[in-house]
Amino acid sequence: MPEAAIDHIYDYDPKFLDDILKSVKSIAMVGASPDKTKFSYGVLRVLHETGYDMIPVNPNPKVAEIRGIKVYHSLAEIDRPVDMVEVFRPKEEVYGLAEQAIAIGAKVFWCQIGVYDDEAAKLAEDAGLKVVMNRCPKIELFRPFWKPRLDLKI
Prior knowledge:
The chain has one domain: Rossmann fold, CATH 3.40.50. The protein has five helices and seven strands; from the N terminus they run H-E-H-E-E-E-E-H-E-H-E-H. It has helices at residues 14-23, 39-50, 91-103, 118-126, 137-142; strands at residues 26-30, 53-57, 65-66, 69-70, 84-87, 108-111, 130-132. Strands 2-1-5-6-7 form a five-stranded parallel beta sheet, with helices on both faces. Strand 1, helix 2 and strand 2 (53-57) form a beta-alpha-beta unit. Helix 3 (91-103) runs parallel beside helix 4 (118-126). The chain is globular.
């Protein structure tokens, strides 16, 4: 079993996240959903409207497009360069997806809030990818302007 990598559950340097979001152009979203009530749909929508080249990945053969964007059924099927692989899948799938992200030459491996795997992080980092886990790029894009008030009572 490989030695655990950096603990990706906690804080990242805001500049590290900002540099990633400023440098990537194409984002393959594994777990993209055509269901407008799903969080992945909203994140895809915002990132697409912000100007990223979104590449939805959904294994369901009945899903051909999301928001008018062609859907790929696996990372290996993508026919163009991918800067970042964003994961909306359970932890059990993360290590295999890290292997696939490396295989397609992605530069960044990013897992959504609640999704992290230290072994997958170490694998991707050892292969030269920047890794972010347990974060949402949509939230990070707006973080400089949006400061949650966690001290307020509900």
